[in-house]
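Re-running Dipeptide ABC transporter ATP-binding protein to confirm reproducibility after the cluster update. Everything else is unchanged from the original entry.
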Amino acid sequence: MTDRDKKTPAPAAAGSDGSGSEPLLKVEGLVKHFPITKGVLKRKVGAVQAVDGLTFDVRPGETLGVVGESGCGKSTMGRLVTRLLEPTGGKVEFQGRDITHMSAGRLRPMRRDIQMIFQDPYGSLNPRHTVGGIVGTPFRLQGVKPEGGVKAEVQRLLELVGLNPEHYNRYPHEFSGGQRQRIGIARALALKPKLVVADEPVSALDVSIQAQVVNLLDDLQDELGLTYMIIAHDLSVIRHVSDRIAVMYLGKIVELADRNSLYEAPMHPYTTALMSAVPVPDPRRRGAKSERILLKGDVPSPISPPTGCRFHTRCWKATQVCKTTEPPLLQLKTGHQVACHHPENGEDQAPGDAPLVADVITVKSAGAAEPVAEPVAEPVAEPVAPAAEPIAEPVAEPVAEPVAEPVAPAAEPIAEPVAEPVAPVASDEPGGPDASPEAPGSVASEGPEKSAVPATDDEGDGSAAPSTGAEGKPKE
Ligand SMILES: Nc1ncnc2c1ncn2[C@@H]1O[C@H](COP(=O)(O)OP(=O)(O)OP(=O)(O)O)[C@@H](O)[C@H]1O
Ligand code: SF4
Ligand SMILES: [Mg+2]
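Result of re-run:
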């Protein structure tokens, strides 16, 4: 199936915002602060508040998309729920079992059910292992003997993801980027997991391959009944693949809603700004988009985030209360949660409050008569293509991404999901010594933080993400 919109909707809401089937994954108040240390004694002088109080759930069979600007904590969240990182606070439940601080030994059997696809298809594959060895690793690590033998099962998996089973003995460098991503997918699916967390599964791929991989994930979900959490910074990809979408800003979920509700009537000003910058590929419909909101400035530092609403330094609707009081994530419409005192398309939660001096935002009207080109009067240098505007569309900015993760550029895409620890070195986790690489399916020893850098890997998110969106996606 290539058209996501034809999919059966996800099961009814469960958990926090409705009733229905039990969530597969339940996250409450999840926190991850990376300590910043100084001196030989490693005195703690601060903390990167990468993830700061996330509450959400993932229902069986659905795809939860997660979007947000670079550095807002998406990958950290992915690594926390797959327990590649130890949470600082909060709770993670998988199938009703609390796995928040579960030991590696007790987690091992659960690793079969929770798998991760990493962003960098090359860095996440051990170049010294053949494809057969890589995809077969989860079976060895988990002591699983598939019917017909490991080789036959690996070849079946390769075929499932559209690779030639004859290439069993080839090495990763003999494949294209898209094929390598498929190898990573085959490996993640080897043990028939229940939940797959895919961190930027297509952002390293060129646009034509993006569509292939997105459609592959889609087909596999139908075939194998998978539940996905897909992290991306490309709103077009997220729209295509997701049943529900969580929008993150500076370590927090600011809006969580089903896809249609979010795209038709976004409630958080940040989401509105993101949406307003999405390019409209149909020239006949461009006239309908008359306003683009250009957020000024960069995302504030997660080391000392703004008080109150973290978005208040960039929000054109900010009032005094926004500066002092953090808005809770509330369900203001059925299945639509938002954290804002003055939501768009919804009831004002703090009417009459005095506005903050709003010199941080430009609300720019392109005008219906001039739908394609931006007005010449725009003082900020702004190219015609909306996706090229680094401030206006942070989630769709491909070029800035590799450089926009200063603290942990090589953190996760290089981590070996099935523990093929080539030559682990200490990660940049400032919280202390890193454990050996552990990933879903691995038997690596337990440690406080589990990231690893195979010696052969040389990049972080080195591959820029083409952010023109997944082509072939349905556009409403
Ligand atoms: N091991 C670490 N040690 C210290 N800080 C870290 C570590 N890993 C991540 N961070 C910081 O936490 C914040 C969130 O990082 P994260 O990788 O989760 O962002 P992201 O949303 O995935 O960004 P991107 O879209 O660029 O991948 C960033 O400020 C990052 O620098
Ligand atoms: S709470 Fe205030 S600052 Fe935050 S998004 Fe809403 S209006 Fe803007
Ligand atoms: Mg990331």
